[in-house]
TrEMBL record, chain A:
Subcellular location: Cell inner membrane; Endomembrane system
Keyword Protein biosynthesis attached: no
Subunit and interaction comment: The complex is composed of six subunits: RnfA, RnfB, RnfC, RnfD, RnfE and RnfG.
Official protein name in the record: Ion-translocating oxidoreductase complex subunit E
Main localisation: membrane
UniProt lineage: Bacteria, Pseudomonadati, Pseudomonadota, Gammaproteobacteria, Alteromonadales
Organism field: Neiella holothuriorum
Automatic annotation (TrEMBL), chain B:
Sequence similarity: Belongs to the RnfG family.
Membrane topology label: Single-pass membrane protein
TM annotation in the entry: 23-46
Name listed for the protein in its UniProt record: Ion-translocating oxidoreductase complex subunit G
HAMAP family assigned: RsxG_RnfG (MF_00479)
Quaternary context: The complex is composed of six subunits: RnfA, RnfB, RnfC, RnfD, RnfE and RnfG.
Domain of life from the UniProt record: Bacteria
SMART domains, per database record: FMN_bind
Organism lineage: Bacteria, Pseudomonadati, Pseudomonadota, Gammaproteobacteria, Alteromonadales
FMN-binding domain segment(s): 106-198
Annotated organism of origin: Neiella holothuriorum
């Protein structure tokens, strides 16, 4: 059980795809002009990550190390294309929102990274758990980053969320700053880099503070 | 996995022939799966695209104005490298309007336009289907952001002189947006060009009709 807890702690914070591994920055910066976009890409990535981890774990005995990378890339690209087709056919309104971003999932090195460093060496269940944890970790960062950019850039939060999640989620759509003229910089790519930089800084500072505290506590214990 | 299979796999995994065979098998499997799913989803996707197109047409051509299957009348047509898709509306056999789909080249890539016209080539409405213009500046061409695009409503080549088909900065009658002139200029020019091309097409058709 503690094993699963540490898998989730790793995925959500300690070894977060974006904040500590600095992977997947290309799709991250491209889509996070709003919180809704971030959520959409995050969920799609989560789904692909779980499937990819599961397949990699199940087929690991059959795959020779020499050809594992082409096989893994092929597997991920196939999963992404399948997701694209299925969404287009049966969840069309979602596809219209996400359509542009789905092919970007292939360029997400985080998926290949997890398959390579974790899933292909683990039994199926922990591999799936790792996919969920890493996917959720990626999703929350995307949503926070998108949220900041959206509030600063256009004064709204979760605009068009009902297109993505269905009409039950209209309550999420908030106008944070009414009659806001917008800060264009935040919507354009530099805004993504800026906010990501601040998030990385906050994460590092927090980590440093934690370490310092632990150090102090240990010092007090040894004195006593 | 079963231990005996596991042992067997461990033995053969390092052979080059096994590696190439497994790569081939994976590729085959992926291809098969993709073929299957694309076959299964093809009709549904075609249906969705049809619905999308119908919705786009309805933006500029009120359903009450025609009784034919508008999408079935789609023809592609090209003038001097300008690409158009033309839909001809008719109501009980009499021509009742046209819808033209075309692309303007905007500030950041193509702007897909849908132009609805009545049988006198007077504009019913213009809508932008897709674009990549700068958010907050050029994207005011979207009807959801600004009512600029409705300034085309009711215009035609006869009621608007040639030199008025331009943004105000160029001496015409269309507003530009502060900080973004290229986008509205591209849209205005393209709509005007489409009207001119459509008119010459109509003339060509009429003279063809007379001669035959």
């Amino acid at each position: 059980m503690s094993n699963y807890r540490s898998i989730f702690a790793e995925g959500l914070w300690r070894n977060n795809v974006v904040l500590s591994q600095c992977l997947a920055l290309c799709p991250l910066l491209a889509v996070t002009s709003s919180a809704t976009n971030g959520l959409g890409l995050g969920l799609a990535t989560l789904a692909v990550m779980v499937c990819a981890n599961l397949l990699a774990s199940v087929f690991q005995p059959a795959i020779s190390r020499a050809v594992r990378i082409p096989i893994n890339i092929l597997m991920i690209a196939t999963l992404v294309t399948l997701t694209d087709l299925v969404l287009n056919a049966w969840m069309h309104s979602l596809h219209k929102v996400l359509g542009l971003f789905i092919p970007l999932i292939v360029t997400n090195c985080a998926i290949l990274g997890r398959v390579e460093s974790f899933a292909s060496k683990q039994p199926a269940l922990p591999a799936v758990a790792d996919g969920v944890a890493m996917g959720l970790g990626f999703t929350w960062v995307l949503v926070v980053l998108g949220g900041f950019r959206e509030i600063l850039g256009s004064g709204t939060l979760f605009a068009d969320a009902s297109l993505l999640l269905g009409s039950h989620f209209e309550f999420l759509e908030i106008t944070v700053i009414p009659n806001y003229r917008g800060l264009l910089l935040m919507i354009l790519p530099p805004g993504g880099f800026l906010i990501l930089g601040f998030m990385l800084m906050a994460q590092r500072q927090w980590q440093r503070w934690l370490e310092a505290r632990q150090h102090r506590l240990q010092g007090e214990q040894s004195c006593a | 996995m079963l231990p005996c299979i596991q042992n067997h796999l461990d033995k053969i995994r390092d052979y080059t022939s096994y590696q190439s065979a497994s790569l081939a098998a994976a590729t085959g499997l992926a291809t098969g799966l993709l073929l299957l799913i694309s076959q299964v989803t093809a009709p549904a996707i075609a249906m969705r695209q049809y619905e999308d197109q119908q919705m786009a047409l309805a933006l500029v051509m009120p359903v009450a104005r025609y009784s034919n299957d508008l999408i079935a009348t789609s023809t592609n047509w090209r003038v001097d490298g300008r690409q158009y898709q033309l839909f001809t509306a008719s109501d009980n056999g009499a021509a009742s309007g046209y819808v033209v789909e075309t692309e303007a080249s905007g500030y950041a890539g193509p702007i897909k336009l849908m132009i609805g016209l009545d049988e006198q080539l007077q504009i019913i409405g213009v809508r932008v289907l897709s674009h990549a213009e700068t958010p907050g500046l050029g994207d005011k061409i979207e009807v959801a952001k600004h009512d600029w695009i409705t300034s085309f409503d009711g215009l035609s080549l006869t009621n608007t002189p040639e030199n008025q088909w331009a943004v105000k900065k160029d001496g015409g009658e269309f507003d530009q947006f502060s900080g973004a002139t290229i986008t509205p200029r591209a849209v205005v020019n393209r709509v005007h060009q489409a009207l001119l091309d459509l008119e010459s097409l109509a003339h060509a058709k009429a003279s063809e009709g007379e001669s035959s």
